[in-house]
Amino acid sequence: MIVRIMGEGQVEISPEDIAVLNELDGELEAAIETGDEDAFRVKLHALLDKVRHVGKALPDDSLEPSELILPPADASIEEVREMLGDQGLIPG
Fold first, then answer.
1. What are phi and psi of 59, to 5 degrees?
2. Residues 6+ apart with CB under 8 A from 3
């Protein structure tokens, strides 16, 4: 799966890593639903850090279509709320 972190570039995520990313995504959604800004910030950074850690960076000149687009680390709770689909940021 090809994932783009806005403002950072693309990474390739293996199918084995999707479950843990879905778990973090669920925690992020819960923080958004409660409106807890501090928890939101922690969960967003945890999700993005995990994507960076498990993902294999693609070259900057790669033209692969992104299957998922994640918000930048400095995104607001409202910006991320607008990006959420029925299944969160990471469908599983």
1. -60, 150
2. 10, 11, 12, 13, 51, 55, 66, 67, 68, 69, 70
- pTM of structure: 0.90
Q: Going from the first residue of the chain to its last (92 residues), give the mean pLDDT of each consecutive group of 10, the final group possibly shorter.
A: 93 94 94 95 97 95 88 95 80 68
To which H or E segment does residue 10 belong? strand 9-12
Half-sphere exposure of 51 (CA within 13 A, CB side): 31
For residue 92, give the DSSP letter.
-
β-strand pairing of 2-5 with 68-70: parallel
Find out whether 21 and 47 touch, Cβ atoms under 8 Å.
yes
DSSP 3-state assignment of 16?
helix
